[in-house]
Each structure stands twice: as C-alpha cells, then as structure tokens.
Automatic annotation (TrEMBL):
The lineage of its organism: Bacteria, Pseudomonadati, Pseudomonadota, Gammaproteobacteria, Chromatiales. PROSITE patterns: RRM. It comes from the Bacteria. Residues 3-80 form the RRM domain. Gene3D superfamilies: 3.30.70.330. SUPFAM superfamilies: RNA-binding domain, RBD (SSF54928). GO terms for molecular function: RNA binding. InterPro entries: Nucleotide-bd_a/b_plait_sf, RBD_domain_sf, RRM_dom, SLIRP/GR-RBP-like. This is RNA recognition motif-containing protein. Keywords: RNA-binding.
Amino acid sequence: MVKTIYVGNLPYTSTDDDLRALFGEYGEVKAVKLITDRDTGRPRGFGFVEMEPAEADAAVAALNGQDYGGRTLRINEARARHGGPRMRRTG
C-alpha cells in the first residue's frame, strides 16, 4: 500500500523529475503528479508524491518547512476529497 503526500508551495519551475529526486532521498518514489492549470497548462505550485508509508513519513518529517527553490515547502499526507462532484465555473 502506498501513501500519497501533498507537496505545496513549489516553485513554478519544478518538474516531476525534480520531485522524484527530492523525495527519492527518503525511499522509492512510486508516482509523481504536478498539478497544472486546466486552461493555460501552467504549473499551479503543488503536486502529489506516492511512496511506501514509512518512507513517506520520513520524507514529510524531513522536508516540511524546508526551503526549496526560494520557497518554503508545505508537505503533509494528502487527504481524500469529500463531497459531491467538482463544480465548474461558467461564464
């Protein structure tokens, strides 16, 4: 079973490979997903990393609050979304 980690306040220049290298110091990275704006395709400054639970916990403890590319990382265990379907803005 893997644990999903939320990684926020990333530099907008970050890539999947950057996150894979950063978190790879704490164990095997199973998956990386940087979130981009649906309309512009530009990075939104956050993403998700999947790792084994013990390795994920070590990465969160070590990296949360650390400087990365001039920004202070906000890292924690991702929480599942609750509620109904996402609302889309129109107009």
